[in-house]
Amino acid sequence: LRVSLPCSHAKEILHCLKEKYFKELQNLEVDGQKVEMPQSLSWYPEELAWHTNLSRKILRKSPQLEKFHQFLVSETECGNISRQEAVSMIPPLLLNVNPHHKILDMCAAPGSKTAQLIEMLHADMNVSFPKGFVIANDVDNKRCYLLVHQAKRLNSPCIMVVNHDASSIPNLQIDVDGRKEVLFYDRILCDVPCSGDGTMRKNIDVWKKWTTQNSLQLHGLQLRIATRGVEQLAEGGRMVYSTCSLNPIENEAVIASLLEKSQGALELADVSSELPGLKRMPGITKWKVMLKDGQWFEEWKDVPSNRQTQIRPTMFPVKDEEKLKAMNLERCLRILPHHQNTGGFFVAVLIKKSPMPWNKRQPKVHQKLPQRTGDTEVTAANSDNNSECITEEPTLAENEESKTMQELQNSDTEQSKKEGVCGPPPSKKMKLFGFKEDPFVFLPEDDPLFLPIQKFYALDPSFPKMNLLTRTQEGKKRQLYMVSKELRNVLLNNSEKMKVINTGIKVWSRNSDGEQFGCAFRLAQEGIYTLYPFLHARIISVCIEDVKILLTQENPFLSKFSSETQKKVKDMAMGSIVLKYDPDPEKPDDLQCPIVLCGWQGKTSLRAFVPKNERLHYLRMMGVEVFKAKRKEEESESKTEEEVQHRLAQTEEGMDVEDKEHDLVTKMEAEIGEESSHSPVESSAMEVENKIEDLDQSSKNANSHVSQESKDADTSNVKD
């Protein structure tokens, strides 16, 4: 498990783990066996990664470990902890990411490495919008939603999830001082599909299904993906190629072939001094190729002609000793399972010194910008079939057949660009890649929707309102999302060729009750840390006792709060507010990191709109005991209360059913063997004071605010 670094409470979480949960595991016996103490990974910076030998079954089922398990599930859901294979943490660390880097993750699902990259972008918690961004891609449409779920826990405006074949991911363009330029990435993570033979300690299927044929079939795809990656890498940029396999045909053979055809444009970086403490083996320079029937081949010339479709020349080691020496294949990293109790893993770090030899000329896209819809449509349709993005003219038959259609689309495209609408790519591609996504519509500069928000929250003049977007073109806008300036640039210039699954962080939700108080939009907790630096009104400073009341009671009366808080609230109009706790250095026993909560001020009460797991997190950090053991005899009695809490949580989160991937994610986590982050976590700290009747009414009110598109999503079971 890994503690998320940009989390403002990272030190507190680490302290809580070491001093509370790990200490409770000391001298503990489960089923007659002594529980081993978790160990920190010596090579991971700042003691932020830990390893435990506890099996998933024991962790889930053992009553003695229930408290620790609930902590892990709850903090994972909040994005403060990630559970991840230890060796899988290595590639992002070797990328050496800085907050200004443009990053591409080519085969990103299920998203644990992507989460690491996002954390590195937000290394400075005081910067709301880092200049860099992460574009996370996966070819599998369903797994993209799992990727969205992982990324959303981190609440970043700098992540975009896209759905493409990595071996032919299109060249994107960005606007640089009014000029269109091809986007090259500073860092690329190329964690390719592989046979997975390095996972045989945990993956039983490998023993049943493994054959030498697996790697022979994957080699070509791996080489194409890696080639496409280095084409899109900026000069001086770094690409990490990795697999969870130890087969040289999937590893050194791919790297050697890439280096050979790069003609000196690429070099393997020497990372022997990085990650001290990590036990590693050097890359190998000699290997043989074997067929399924057990035949071995040392050279390409030995392969019979009837086998030359299965075995390719790029699978063999380089024979020229000088060339081989210049490649420095020993700079690759091989992580062997028995060296430090991990999975098997291969990593190679490549640096691009000059353009690839076949890319010396500027790409055609750079010269011929897709202004005519005919061109852009064909570019989009062909970008997934060619490793180089080449603009082709449509055939005569196609022209005659779809002339009217193109004219219609042409006018639509021009209009969309004017309105800041980033629609999905052509419908033909949609059938290939699954579900149709809602468009991304940026708010126009003169949108009347924004003025009441600006006035109500006294937004700073520096607030980047051009970066606000919605997911609906028509009707009432229900949610407002925000992206960084750089991602806005990418979105606006590439909507025809790129299938975007998700981007942006929710900052405001419509609440019709707020209209009578001057603003129809309330603040959303997931975007509050991004938004807070720009707010100059509706902020109430609260003490730690007030925070405890807000988090443990559902709708507390104002009389329960400190006199200072009551005074501040008295002079403030009803509606959405920010509740800010600043630590007092003179009280070292109190929580020493700031907390920002979204809330609602009523006539006689004050409440916090914070998701359940986040509430539990803050309470833990303040030393409040939130654990409640589950007892079978209590299950039926507590069922009603759980339903109430569930409906309450929906109300608190503004009934944001616009995010359609939730159910799919839960199923998929089970499919890939990940532990579901939706395990029930009960809390004795949660006191629901409202009567069920009141809650029913508030649920009805909240339901009336659900957008039409959300209702459509609910009635359609296609995505679920």
TrEMBL record:
Signal peptide positions on this chain: none
GO biological process: tRNA methylation
Disordered: annotated segments: 358-424, 630-720
Keywords on record: Methyltransferase, Nucleus, RNA-binding, S-adenosyl-L-methionine, Transferase, tRNA processing, tRNA-binding
An example Gene Ontology molecular-function term: tRNA binding
InterPro entries noted in UniProt: MeTrfase_RsmB-F_NOP2_cat, MeTrfase_RsmB-F_NOP2_dom, Pre-PUA_NSUN2, PUA_NSUN2, RCMT, RCMT_NCL1, SAM-dependent_MTases_sf
SUPFAM superfamilies reported in the protein's UniProt record: S-adenosyl-L-methionine-dependent methyltransferases
PROSITE patterns: SAM_MT_RSMB_NOP
Ranges of Basic and acidic residues composition bias in the record: 630-650, 657-670, 708-720
One GO CC term, this protein: cytoplasm
Comp. bias (Polar residues): 379-389, 698-707
Positions that bind S-adenosyl-L-methionine: C107, A108, A109, P110, G111, S112, K113, D138, D165, D191
EC category name: transferase
Keyword presence, Ribonucleoprotein: no
Active-site residue list: C244
Keyword Cell membrane in annotation: no
Pfam families linked: Methyltr_RsmB-F, Pre-PUA_NSUN2, PUA_NSUN2
Domain SAM-dependent MTase RsmB/NOP-type: 1-353
EC number from the UniProt entry: 2.1.1.203
Location within or outside the cell: Nucleus; Secreted, Extracellular exosome
Record field: catalytic activity: cytidine(48) in tRNA + S-adenosyl-L-methionine = 5-methylcytidine(48) in tRNA + S-adenosyl-L-homocysteine + H(+); cytidine(34) in tRNA precursor + S-adenosyl-L-methionine = 5-methylcytidine(34) in tRNA precursor + S-adenosyl-L-homocysteine + H(+); cytidine(49) in tRNA + S-adenosyl-L-methionine = 5-methylcytidine(49) in tRNA + S-adenosyl-L-homocysteine + H(+); a cytidine in mRNA + S-adenosyl-L-methionine = a 5-methylcytidine in mRNA + S-adenosyl-L-homocysteine + H(+)
PANTHER family documented for this protein: NCL1 YEAST -RELATED NOL1/NOP2/FMU SUN DOMAIN-CONTAINING, RNA CYTOSINE-C(5)-METHYLTRANSFERASE NSUN2-RELATED
Family: Belongs to the class I-like SAM-binding methyltransferase superfamily. RsmB/NOP family.
UniProt name for this protein: tRNA (cytosine(34)-C(5))-methyltransferase
Gene source species: Pygoscelis adeliae
